[in-house]
UniProtKB/TrEMBL annotation:
Keywords: Hydrolase. It comes from Mesorhizobium neociceri. It comes from the Bacteria. One of its GO terms (molecular function) is hydrolase activity. Signal peptide: none annotated. This is HAD-IA family hydrolase. The keyword Hydrolase applies.
Amino acid sequence: MPNVFLFDLDMTLVDSSALAHLRRSQMWNAVRQNMNLIRAFPAQGRAAPHELPALLRADGQAVGIVTSSPEWYATAVLQQFRIPYDVLVSYGDTENHKPDPAPIEEALRRLGIAASRESLYIGDDVGDVEAAYHAGLASVAVRWGPTSIFELSSSAPDIFMSKASTLLRRDRIGGRGYIGEALTSKWPFHSHWGSILHCDDEPVVYALGRYFTASDPRHATSPLSAAVLSLKNNDSQAQILGECVGRAVALFDWNPDCIIPVPMKPSQERNRFKELLESASDHFDEDIEVELSGLKTVKEIDGYKQMNALQRAEAIKDAFDTDYTWSGAKILLLDDVYTTGETTRECVRILNANGAGEVRVMAIAKDQRVFSRKTCSACGRSMKIRENHTTHEKFWGCSGYPDHCRHTEDF
Ligand SMILES: [Zn+2]
């Protein structure tokens, strides 16, 4: 059964960043006059992104383009860069648009192919990942787009791709996935740099897979999420999670001197990282020390889970301390789930204030936004999560904006 490769166009196959502002403002006349500003991305490995459709088709694969841009624009870009395709779905072809699955479903319908996880949708932003999820395809996010790693890792695709040529190795794509998900699911697995999910910078945060909350339909089929949840109460999954951590540390291109877990509350008797780190240490260099009590909690915080980000940041200040002087040591801070990062940032601050050389963070899993489909109460079209450019507050906006509907709702 052949794979189908459906691609987003802008910032996935071609670099149209010079026209991003004009496209967002729907100033299509100005876009039309400046098509020469669209660039090819440079080659990565043995292919540049815009060459992928031709290479895949030459290999007998079906290729489609699914874009939210108008048809005249898409066909002009595809012609300009000599990108071949079997099907093109553009803005006018469907009533609903990404992250709604309608455009992807329309492409599959025209190809006469049923949706399956063997087919891939390749895009650069969160809406692409979400549309692929709703359509029942595997999602691939490319790392050369403008989306921040925090945004992308919070709505993580099934596969992160930092090099275009990866897509040409179908034997390898099958064995890709995040190391924590692959090992807990007992999938065949090739370790590679993309098997660790890069979640944040300053501090640098990595996760070993995705954490789906109990309200997310994906929770039921995620052994990693179940394992992380059980670690709060017992050590039944400590062995396998330790293997995930240990093998990820061994895979790193950054060697810490020491691994320290985020500290327990004073009221907690069991250290949930103790057995896990014993298991982990079977897999990495014995020069790396594990310091279970490298950090301690000196202030218990009531009602932390109910607080918003600002209240959390305030409450957690000076909640931790360390008995050591770290003398320039490189420290890997271990946490279970990375959510908004207040706890880890405060731990890193305390370690840095006590002489640490560099601190990076490894979370077993990155929590994920639940993909919920929301329909507009004014017109029935699907709604998208949008952001106010000034306040950066998120809100639901109708996908019929601006021509058909201007309805918004609080996020
Ligand atoms: Zn509407």
